[in-house]
Amino acid sequence: MATRAGTRHRFVTAALAAPAALWMLVFLVLPFVAMLVFAFGRRAPEGGYLPGFTFEQFLNLPARAAAFGNTLMLAPAGALLCLLVAYPVAYYLAVKAAPRHRLVLVSLIVVPFWTSLLVRTYAWMYILGSRGLPNLLSTIGLPDLRMLNTPGAVLVGIVYGYLPLMIMPIYVSLEKLDRRLLDASADLGARPVSTFLGITLPLSLPGVMTGVALVTILLLGEYLIPQLLGGGKVFFIGNALVDLFLQSRNWPFGSAIAVTLVLVVVVVLTVAMRIAWRFAGTRRVDLV
């Protein structure tokens, strides 16, 4: 009877997991295998893929060093800026805000997601353009500030677009914080800064690492914000992929860059998990 029950349990588990496994196979594994095959091929004379086996595409990766450099520099910088802005907001929502107001405040954070990122980024193009912030500064007698088509404009768009993805994991982590620990720390005479550094921050670290990993991984493939706010002067890997696949039709080289990007994401995720486990001790840390 025990063996039959165990077999039935495994069958039910496999049946429940089958749709998700099939989805992952069709939309994740098979496309990556196709990219891997293309990466070792050659570009056909008319564009596209020509079967072959060569490392030429990977050896040509330095030709897109600027895109890799911008991505690997601005993506972590954008994630760090998001963290610096998001943590105080999440802390206020979870610890300081009245419970009856939290739902409204959290809803206000989520509301921007109801509008297309394209529309919101176009709004920032106007704000940072000549008729927006620079015009306002010149009107009140301050020096003209040109930000559009610069890395600074891209960082502004990144923080605005990805801030909710950083706030929510940190908020969830802080919302689960046992308030009795904070009260005990205060009763024992600890200063607020000591309480924060010794209790609040370590216990919220899983949410912090989740938010940082989530935002950084998404930024590594970002295309829209650099394209619009960078004005073609601040290229990310995503912009290079669009150029290679849709314009120059160099599918093997684009596939090699895509495979390299996936490997970079795996490395970033692995490092983030190791850091989270080291600082969070034995507490469970979910990054994905």
Automatic annotation (TrEMBL):
Topological type in the membrane: Multi-pass membrane protein
Residue ranges of every copy of the ABC transmembrane type-1 domain listed in the record: 68-274
PROSITE patterns per UniProt: ABC_TM1
Entry keyword set: Cell membrane, Membrane, Transmembrane, Transmembrane helix, Transport
Residue ranges crossing the lipid bilayer per the database entry: 12-40, 72-94, 103-127, 152-174, 195-220, 253-277
Cell compartments where the protein resides: Cell membrane
Keyword Endoplasmic reticulum tagged: no
Pfam family, one: BPD_transp_1
Alphabetical list of InterPro entries matching this protein: MetI-like, MetI-like_sf
Chief place of localization: membrane
Family: Belongs to the binding-protein-dependent transport system permease family. CysTW subfamily.
Protein known as: ABC transporter permease
Species assigned in the record: Mesorhizobium liriopis
